[in-house]
Amino acid sequence: MSRKKHYYRHLLSLLHKHQHCRRAIRQIHSHFLVLNTENIGILALWNSILKHYSLGAFPQDAVSLFKYLRNQSNLMSFDSFTYSYLVKACANMKRAHIGNQLHCLSAKVGFAYHVHVQTALVNMYIDCGRLVEAKNLFDEMPERNLVTWNVLITGFIKWGEIEFARAVFDVMPEKNVVSWTGLIDGYTRMNWFHEALWLFRKMVVDEGIKPTEVTLLAVFPSIWNIGCLEFCQMVHAYGEKSGLNMMDIRVMNCLIDAYARSGSIESAWRVFEDIVDVRRNLVSWTSIISAFAMHGMAMEASDCYRRMENKGVKPNGITFLSVLNACSHGGLLDEGLQFYRKMVDDCGIAPGIKHYGTLIDMLGRAGRLDEAEKIALGIPSEIGNVVVWRTLLGACSFHGDVEVGERVTRKIMELERQYGGDYVLLSNIFSAAGRFDDSERVRRIMDEKNASKIPGVTVNV
């Protein structure tokens, strides 16, 4: 091997080693510039540079390099890889007009019928939101492969065009697990949960296509939104048989959540216990704590948090939100306040609006309305939310606290005046306290403000 070829290979190995470091890639790029670009194999090296620029954080560098190379006196003959990487750069930049120029240029130099270049162009138009251009190009392609079909399907799904995606799916000459998974994910995202589960069953039972872990992750939201325990058990059994449960901890974590939402906390706990200690991550612990919380098992959630802490797993804001919810619904006020202080003081986690809402709900349920009001007043304005004040107003109504209820209602009116439920709650608080004139006054104000009211429904028994 010549010395120059050896040097090329050395630079190429450095390029792959430092593919995520822009500074290193630029240094290697500069070495290429001082070499003789007519040497055999140099295009592969430039393509490697273009690839890393295209897929990195600065895809515009790929376009700039291509312009430079085209302007050299020893004009290089670019190949399909070159144009595919450049089109990907345009997709990442969301620059359809540059992609359109590359489309024209690639056709001019002979890639109008190249399936990989054309597929990259379809993907580029979709990523840029140019669905009509993508579909037109797809229709004009004399040859399409499975990737081309899947790109179009997932592209339509990405932009919420599920019916177009289904139409493409139905006429595909061949479908693979990617095709099915993409459509299942699309129906799940559109909240068409029954259709997603029907497709999953058809894929596995009728077509005999084995789902991957990505397929299982895509179908789980449909399972837990419907609360279908049978489907949860089916997916669990398949995961055990195929080994996906052991391969991907995300599947096990989703199973915990799916069982809990489907009403079987016992099954959720068994799944958690089946995960060996070394594989349990923060999501595993948070999922089981959340499962106990949604089933009103506050002590179990609290004990599970302490087990997690003893294992050296550091909680995050979602973990604390789950355990705070458990304490709120389980009436463990003192323990809930301890968890809140631990989150803020020990873990340095800034509370979000959901943490504040749960804390106020917890105090409100216990009748400590003055403390809850003080916390509500201290919520930073940039994350403030009228729902928090409505939670407190509901607690005032439950405990019959007129004084705090009036102050809370005034605060709500500063934020939003058109929701009739606020007026109704305050009116009921006055009525319960025997202040009927004030109750009627609030009702009149509600009518004058034309505040929205939820119409009553007559139920025939």
TrEMBL record:
Q: For this UniProt entry, which residues form the secretion signal?
A: none
Which segments cross the bilayer? none
Provide the alphabetized UniProt keywords.
Repeat
- Top-rank taxon of the source lineage equals Eukaryota
For this protein, the record's InterPro entries field holds:
E_motif (IPR046848), PPR_At4g14850-like_plant (IPR046960), PPR_rpt (IPR002885), TPR-like_helical_dom_sf (IPR011990)
Name where the PPR repeats lie: 145-175, 176-211, 248-278, 281-315, 316-351
Q: What is the protein name given in its UniProt record?
A: Pentatricopeptide repeat-containing protein
Q: Which organism is it from?
A: Rehmannia glutinosa (Chinese foxglove)
